[in-house]
Amino acid sequence: MKKVLLFTFCLSSIAMLFSFKSIFQKKPSGKEVVQKLESLGYFKYAHPSKVNELIKAFAEGYATHGALVTTYEMPKYQSADYRLYGLDGETLYEEGGFRSYLSDMDRTFKNLNVNLKIENEIEEYSQSGGLNHIIWVNGKEYVIFRNDNGSANSWGVAAKRYAEMVNDVLSRSKSPERLYLMSGGNDGKAVFLTQEQYQYIKVTFPNNESKPLNVEEWSKKYRLK
Predict the structure, then answer these.
(1) CA-CA distance, 140 to 20, in Å (whole number)?
(2) Cα angle vertex 149, ends 127, 191, to 5°?
(3) Could you count the other beta carbons within 10 Å of the beta carbon of residue 195?
């Protein structure tokens, strides 16, 4: 009996030790985070003339907000890292929203050597049948909405289906990158990441409200099916 109690006590002590270690573990600096992500190729798509400015803003954003940030290129106000994009759920749900965001992200698809071609799209709405939205990309049909009458979740579903479609295109193109979702509604964003980049950001960045999530995790957070 004493041996069992001693063993249990030892296990409890070890668990407490690891718990205290995690609590007091030093948070990496912005500079360290940037260096790690740079080694993982996070900034490789940025124009060389923009890298220093981008890295500085990124490090400051992490240190101040614990979240992903970027700088922007004018005149189109596009992210200088070619990774982080706004993804407004309302805009996606409205007519032309999918085409608009696919067009914005085309610069990133080209960097990923992904030839994305929209072959056809149907967006029809009626009082009796609701919204039907189907889009054909690279020879495949994607059903976005079927008889959708609009709900509090419709914007979120649009973002979910958009990310699923993009990730399917990336997978079929054998790209190592995937699109991850951040926040939601009018504040929604999306970011292209490799699995290694995603895992590092997931365990390192403290801001859970704007942390990138894969589609399944993001859908659970916003209670989407």
Answers:
(1) 51
(2) 135
(3) 11
Rounded to an integer, what distance in angstroms lies between the CA atom of residue 74 and that of residue 72?
A: 7
What is the SS3 assignment for 214?
Answer: coil
pTM: 0.86
- Per-residue pLDDT reduced to its tens digit, 79-105: 999 999 999 999 999 999 999 999 999
* Cβ contact 135:121 at 8 Å: yes
Q: What is the pLDDT of residues 98-141, one digit of tens each?
A: 999 999 999 999 999 999 999 999 999 887 778 999 999 999 99
Query: Shortest CA distance to 188 belongs to which of 171, 216, 209, 167?
Result: 209
Phi, psi of 77 (to 5 degrees): 55, 55
Residue 161 is encoded by which pair of tokens?
């289906």
Phi, psi of 127 (to 5 degrees): -60, -35
Tell me if 67 sits within 8 A of 211, measured CB to CB: yes
Burial class (CB in 10 A: 0-12, 13-18, 19+), 119: exposed
By the 8 A CB rule, do 193 and 201 touch?
yes
Is the distance from CB of 219 to CB of 225 less than 8 angstroms?
yes
